[in-house]
Specification:
The two termini are 20 Å apart. The protein is mostly beta strands. Strands 1, 2, 3, 4, 5 and 6 form a 6-stranded antiparallel beta sheet that branches. A two-stranded antiparallel sheet has the order 7-8. It has a single domain, classed as 60s Ribosomal Protein L30, Chain: A (2-Layer Sandwich).
């Protein structure tokens, strides 16, 4: 078990901003090593989600409310899942792919675990780059 102090950041995305691009920039600008989504509300006008246990990617190109967004963020990759709802309150969810563009606003709270570092490394069991959690105190100065 790993424990760590927590720092939180808040940011707001404006219409047309892509959440993936903005999060990558935010992590780099703030040198975040072990970040995650604490809270997210807002709306999207374009979203791509991969469905469970599939290579199928669904594209949603009209406004949807963000019902939930969760996941881990590292300098070498993200793992984000979202649920979005349409004008009839139908909810769609899956793994966030490539783009999630803001419609009116997206309000995010991002947490940073100060004593940890997240990386994504290939796992032969899953066939994907998976989360690896390390204590920062055990890393060399070139790794921090």
């Amino acid at each position: 078990m790993n424990s760590s102090a927590l720092t939180c950041y808040a940011l707001r995305l404006v219409p047309g901003e892509d959440i993936i691009k903005r999060l990558k920039l935010f992590l780099t600008e703030n040198n975040l090593k072990a970040a995650f989504i604490v809270s997210c509300v807002g709306s999207t006008k374009f979203t791509k989600l991969r469905t469970a246990n599939s290579t199928t990617v669904k594209t949603f190109s009209k406004p949807h409310e963000i019902v939930s967004l969760s996941g881990t963020l590292s300098q070498d990759g993200f793992h984000l899942h979202a649920s979005i709802s349409d004008e009839n309150s139908m909810v769609f969810g899956g793994h966030v792919m490539e783009v999630m563009e803001t419609y009116t606003t997206i309000e995010l709270v991002i947490g940073e675990l100060n004593s940890l570092k997240f990386t994504r490394e290939f796992d032969s069991n899953s066939g994907y780059k998976e989360l690896v959690i390390r204590n920062r105190e055990h890393l060399s100065t070139t790794d921090t």
